[in-house]
Design a protein that fits this description.
By secondary structure, this protein is an alpha/beta fold. The protein is built from eight helices and seven strands; from the N terminus they run H-H-H-H-E-H-E-E-E-E-H-E-H-E-H. The protein has helices at residues 2-24, 31-54, 65-90, 98-147, 165-176, 233-252, 271-279, 298-311, and strands spanning 150-155, 183-190, 206-207, 212-215, 218-223, 258-261, 283-286. The chain folds into two domains: 2-143, no CATH class; 148-311, Rossmann fold.
């Protein structure tokens, strides 16, 4: 808007000088014009620009056309009065031409008014476009969010419903969310050893190959464990399952995955896997196994994880 004002004021001043000292009196190049009118105008114009820049932001798009014209008229009256005052203070010998002042004021009001109204119309048009674009963007974002699939990886359960509490929890969780199109579960299961997964005894399970099967729309993968490593089998199982999860995330470029570890057995060994999950914007849910004061009953824990995944928020201890 300041650019519009400056251009309009310069054009108005030039028009006033041309009419007064070229059309009415052929003395445009006179010493009076060169030494008084033009230098004084430049000084007043600089002062006008400084004052406009010092003002707070003017939201012309929120003003009516009447308010724009009234503001323009007031500003140009002040500008013309300031120019006249400077002329009399610095050049007392010659009076400023009333024709120049009058033409200058009228031209400023007309040019600035037209320019500001055109800019007002432009701002209104752009505001409507921004609102429409924002609405379209929000609609698309909402649609994408509603169609987004959250991938959840479960590590630590030996099987599905075939051993103990963790296994029963996983089975109930998968059954509860089997029709949820926004959640895709990936569950690690033991292929051998104590508590291993017996696919044939799980109703509804469908084998894909030797190492994978599906249950309630969840992808379940089998982990083979060496029998000779003794008590380290649990740690080996969790680490190998974590490695499978990270490889699957990276291979399929899955964004914001959730890896839920049902027992805190791997400890410091999981650090590098946590970093790999974080690289894709994911989070680690850590079950506080052994912290009796921090554990809840099975029903409450089941409800918590279901609500958390549905709302895509993490309420349990996380990395």
């Amino acid at each position: 808007m300041l650019t519009i004002d400056v251009v309009s004021i310069v054009l108005s001043f030039a028009l006033a000088l041309v009419i007064r000292f070229r059309i009415l009196v052929a003395s445009l190049g006179s010493n009076l014009v060169v030494t008084t009118y033009i230098p004084f105008f430049i000084a007043v114009l600089i002062a006008y620009v400084v004052l406009m820049l010092a003002r707070s932001e003017i939201r012309i798009d929120r003003m009516s056309k009447r308010e724009i014209l009234e503001q323009t008229e007031i500003q140009q009256i002040i500008l013309s009065a300031l120019y006249t005052a400077v002329f009399f203070l610095l050049h007392r010998a010659d009076a400023i031409s009333r024709i120049v002042v009058g033409l200058f004021f009228i031209s400023c009001v007309v040019f600035c008014g037209i320019g500001r109204i055109c800019y007002h119309e432009y701002c209104q048009k752009k505001s409507i476009e921004v609102v429409n674009n924002a609405k379209v963007f929000n609609d698309r974002a909402s649609e994408n969010k509603s169609n987004k699939v959250r991938h959840v990886y479960i590590v630590g359960s030996k099987s599905i419903g075939q051993y103990g509490g963790y296994e029963s929890f996983v089975m109930n969780l998968l059954q509860h969310h089997k029709d949820n199109k926004n959640i895709k579960y990936h569950v690690a299961c033991k292929a051998n050893g104590q508590g291993c997964m017996n696919i044939d005894s799980l109703p509804g399970a469908k084998r894909i190959n030797e190492d994978e099967f599906t249950y309630c729309n969840a992808q379940c993968f089998l982990i083979n464990i060496p029998e000779k490593i003794g008590s380290a089998k649990a740690i080996y199982y969790d680490l190998k399952a974590l490695r499978w999860c990270c490889d699957h995330i990276e291979r399929n470029h899955i964004e914001e995955p959730v890896v839920y570890i049902l027992a805190s057995r791997v400890g410091p060994f999981e650090k590098k896997y946590v970093k790999r999950v974080h690289n894709y914007g994911g989070k680690i849910w850590q079950n506080p196994d052994g912290w009796e004061h921090a554990r809840r009953n099975g029903k409450q824990a089941f409800e918590d994880i279901g609500n958390s995944v549905r709302n895509m928020r993490l309420r349990m201890p996380i990395w």
